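Section 4.2 – Deliverable D4.2 (structural model, holo form)

The reporting period included a commitment to supply a predicted holo structure for the target in complex with pyridoxal-5'-phosphate. Inputs used:
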Amino acid sequence: MRQETKCIEGGYTPGNGEPRLMPIVQSTTFKYNTSEDMAKLFDLEATGYFYTRLQNPTNDLVAAKICELEGGTAAMLTSSGQAASFFSVFNLANAGDHVIASSAIYGGTYNLFNVTMRKMGIEFTFVEPDCTAEELEAAFKPNTKVVFGETIANPSLIVFDFEKFSTAAHKHGVPLIVDNTFATPINCRPFEWGADIVIHSTTKYMDGHDATVGGVIVDSGKFDWMAHADKFPGLCTPDESYHGITYAEKFGKEGAFITKCTAQLMRDLGSIPSPHNSYILNLGLESLAVRVQRHCENATKVAKFLSENPNVEYVTYPGLEGDKYYERAKKYLPNGTCGVISFGVKGGRAGAEAFMKKLKLAIVATHVADAHTCVLHPASSTHRQLTDDELRACGISPDMVRFSVGIENVDDIIEDLAQALA
Ligand SMILES: Cc1ncc(COP(=O)(O)O)c(C=O)c1O
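Output (structure tokens):
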């Protein structure tokens, strides 16, 4: 099946007389005839469900659809994108380990790594996304366990140099994890460019309708844990908290990572989505391919309009010819990039504030990557406590507006921008 078809048909094939749409199994618990039947599940000897904190049939069907879209071998849903980022790294790196991350990642991920996970004893090195291969090489340590990046970074819109990062990670025997939220598997399939594990905030384009917060982790099944067993004892030696199972032996390259993540992290930390939310996410996934195409068409027209408007200082959009990342985007994302644009309004902070007040269609929101066009002026909202100099130090200019182009008629979006800029 092609991507558009997988969005509709993936993950779930009803049998004769079964519901066409995947059912919501809104049950915390599952009934068994004998204790022996249940014991097999606890020992991971049989597949099945016993308690929704670990796994639920609706969640698994939706995860299976996203797994097909990414071209992976196993996947699990989480209750948020943050949980997916945390689980994906914590499944491999423990206290005393080291992780390399591109500095061009979502601010929430940066904070998770740099503050919360540091407190857990994991060390992080952030490297410039456009560092040289030598600079990247120098960041590795004997205890490095993971390399992490983001396909199109939120909000800098820097396109990830997959080949540079995956080559370095594999040379050092560690996997590359990529946050593919902004690109979606419609526009980029990181496994084809060397990534080993992909995560998403499904809250963005996958849901696409402001309806549910969620995340997903997908494993490519390509990373050979046993070949680097000394680095990954959690996967390659017996798990005493799970009856001495060695995940990499029992579930192979294809299943070890997600089984461990479910059996240990979901069991202990419990960040499972509600089956009802997963059902809503699936409705969003059905139209993902058509929506993403429309987001990109609209955003390309909006970016062009902005680049020609005299009241606009600059435009950043990797789908716009002349953008610093246009050529890299053409290589890794040939069908389109995303719907998010950033631009500067003439007149600095005051100019941007005045512009924001005049918008009529675009709604002011911290959210992005959604059917509705939404807009944020970081200097007067999320980053309002910072001075102009402090803002520039975090790569945000005082006049910068982040504009998430929706799937409305693009002429209405452009007319709204035109009158507000005027
Ligand atoms: C690229 C990216 N990754 C991860 C997240 C975190 O996802 P969530 O808000 O679903 O926890 C976000 C949220 O904005 C994001 O934009």
